[in-house]
Amino acid sequence: MYRILIVEDEVKIAETVKQYLERDGHDVRHxxxxxxxxxxxxxxxxxxxxxxxxxxxxxxxxxxxxxxxYDTPVIMLTSKSSEQSRISGFARGxxxxxxxxxxxxxxxxRVKSVLKRAxxxxxxxxxxxxxxxxxxxxxVTKKGTTVKLTPNEYAILLCLANNRQAAVGRDKxxxxxxxxxxxDRTVDVHVRHLRQKIEDDPGNPRxxxxxxxxxxxxxxxxxx
Length: 224
Ligand code: CA
Fold this sequence. Notes:
- The protein has two domains: about 5-115, Response regulator (Rossmann fold); about 125-220, Winged helix-like DNA-binding domain superfamily/Winged helix DNA-binding domain (Arc Repressor Mutant, subunit A, Orthogonal Bundle), CATH 1.10.10.
- It is built from eight helices and 14 strands.
- It has helices spanning about 10-25, 35-40, 60-70, 85-90, 105-120, 150-160, 170-175, 185-200, and strands spanning about 5, 25-30, 45-50, 55, 55-60, 75-80, 95-100, 125, 130-135, 140, 145, 170, 210, 215-220.
- It has a five-stranded parallel beta sheet, with helices on both faces. It has a four-stranded antiparallel beta sheet with strand order 8-9-10-11, covered by helices on one side.
- Strand 9 and strand 10 (about 140) form a beta hairpin.
- The chain starts with a strand and ends in a 6-residue tail after the last strand.
- The structure holds calcium ion (CA).
- The site of calcium ion has 5 residues, from strand 4.
C-alpha cells in the first residue's frame, strides 16, 4: 500500500484514476489546486499524480517544490504534449509524463513501475487480529494461515481496509467489485461469506461491522 496524492482540477478524471489506484490497494487522496497540493504533501506521500494546468498555478512549480522538499516521485498528467513541455517536465523533476487523453490502466501500470523504482517496500496491508492482505498476489492470511477468498470477497475486504474506520456505502462497494448491475443484497451475501471465513465469531462480527441502512466498515485497526 502506498500513499498517493492526485492533484487534478478535472474531478471526473481524478475520480477515475482514484478508483483504479484504490483497486490496486493504495491509499489515495485528491486535491484540485496547487495550494492544497502543497499543504497536503508530507514526507509520507509516496507518489504524486500532477496535472500541470491548475486553477491557481502551474503544476511544474508544485513539482519543483515537492521534489526539493521530500524527493517525492511525480507523474505529470497533462494536455501539454509538445516535446518542449515534456523536456521541461522532466527538467523540473518529473519521474514520468503522460498526456491526456490517457488510459487509466496505463497510468496504473506507470504508477506501479515508478513506485517500484522509487519506493521499494512490502506490498502488504496489516490489520489487527493478525490479518494480512498481500496486494501483489491478492491473497489474505489470518494468523499465518491462508484464507481462501473469492475475488469479490477480497475486493470488499480491501475496499473496507482502504477506508480504515470510515463507513463505506453499499453503492460504493458494488462499484468497487465491478458489479454495477448487482442488487444491494449481493454485497450482503459476499459480506456474510467473508465473515464466515475471517471472523472468529461470524454471528458477532468484529472485523467487518454493519452500518445500518448504509453499508459496512472495518471494525479493526489498520497498521500500515
Ligand atoms: Ca487542469
